[in-house]
């Protein structure tokens, strides 16, 4: 399956790679061509790393980035509430797509199900600090999977089967009341592409 990454994980991939490229988000670009509203979200947000970056520069019109420029793309994506997506491997990430809830195929298909977290997940979930929370409900507005609701104590609660751990709630919290913690019972992803293909074949 695809996997979701947190901001800190993507920043690590940026730091680890010398060659980084950025290109247009296919899904939002296609939506623009169809005359759809993309809610002011950026389109130059899909990053490639290493050999994939060189291919995208040579063949797909992508633009080479410095690490500083790549972090600016990441920050812009984070501010827009986009979801950092890639292939589900622990090593060798070749790309990061910064997806939205309205147009990006992987996300929209997952959100059609009752339990999106069974389709994709970062392995993290939000934890709320009741002392810091100001009950502004910004996290509810930003959550792409509508996994959050306010309880009787005016604190956010998470529906684990809907939450895929994208950390969009945490990054947008004005009082920094949300931290991301490891989800219990989460299955570690395959080590690399070969291991992922082996796992897929084993479950077909």
Write out key terms for the chains shown:
two-stranded antiparallel sheet, six-stranded antiparallel β-sheet, 8 helices, 204 residues, 10 strands, alpha+beta, 32% helix, globular
Structure report:
By secondary structure, the protein is of the alpha+beta class. It has eight helices and ten strands. The strands form three sheets. Strands 1-5-6-3-2-4 form a six-stranded antiparallel beta sheet. A two-stranded antiparallel ribbon has the order 7-10. The protein has a two-stranded antiparallel sheet with strand order 8-9. Helix 1 runs antiparallel to helix 4. The chain is globular and about 55 Å long. The model has no long low-confidence stretch (mean pLDDT 88).
In this structure, how is the largest beta sheet organized? 6 strands, antiparallel
* Total of DSSP H or I helical runs spanning 4+ residues: 8
Q: For the largest beta sheet, what order do the strands appear in spatially?
A: 1-5-6-3-2-4
Percent of residues in β-strands? 15-25%
Order of helices and strands: EHEHEHEHEEHEHEEHEH
* Quantity of strands, as a count: 10
Summarize the structure.
The protein has 204 residues and is an alpha+beta fold. The protein contains eight helices and ten strands.
Write the layout of secondary structure elements.
Layout: E1 2-5, H1 7-16, E2 20-23, H2 26-33, E3 46-49, H3 51-59, E4 63-65, H4 67-79, E5 83-87, E6 95-99, H5 105-111, E7 124-128, H6 138-142, E8 148-150, E9 156-158, H7 168-171, E10 178-182, H8 193-202
Antiparallel strand pairs: 1-5, 2-3, 2-4, 3-6, 5-6, 7-10, 8-9
């Amino acid at each position: 399956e695809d996997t979701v990454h947190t901001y800190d994980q993507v920043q690590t991939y940026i730091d680890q790679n010398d060659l980084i490229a950025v290109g247009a988000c296919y899904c939002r670009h296609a939506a623009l061509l169809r005359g759809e509203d993309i809610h002011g979200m950026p389109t130059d947000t899909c990053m490639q790393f290493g050999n994939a970056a060189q291919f995208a520069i040579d063949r797909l019109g992508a633009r080479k980035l410095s690490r500083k420029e790549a972090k600016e793309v990441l920050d812009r994506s984070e501010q827009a509430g986009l979801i950092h997506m890639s292939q589900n491997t622990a090593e060798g990430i070749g790309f990061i797509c910064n997806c939205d809830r309205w147009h990006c195929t992987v996300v929209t298909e997952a959100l059609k199900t009752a339990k999106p977290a069974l389709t994709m997940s970062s392995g993290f979930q939000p934890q709320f600090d009741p002392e810091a929370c100001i009950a502004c409900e910004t996290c509810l507005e930003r959550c792409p999977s509508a996994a959050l609701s306010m309880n009787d104590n005016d604190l956010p609660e998470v529906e684990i089967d809907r939450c895929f751990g994208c950390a969009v709630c945490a990054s947008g919290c004005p009082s920094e009341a949300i931290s991301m913690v490891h989800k219990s019972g989460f299955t570690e992803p395959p080590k690399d592409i070969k291991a992922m293909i082996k796992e897929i074949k084993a479950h077909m």
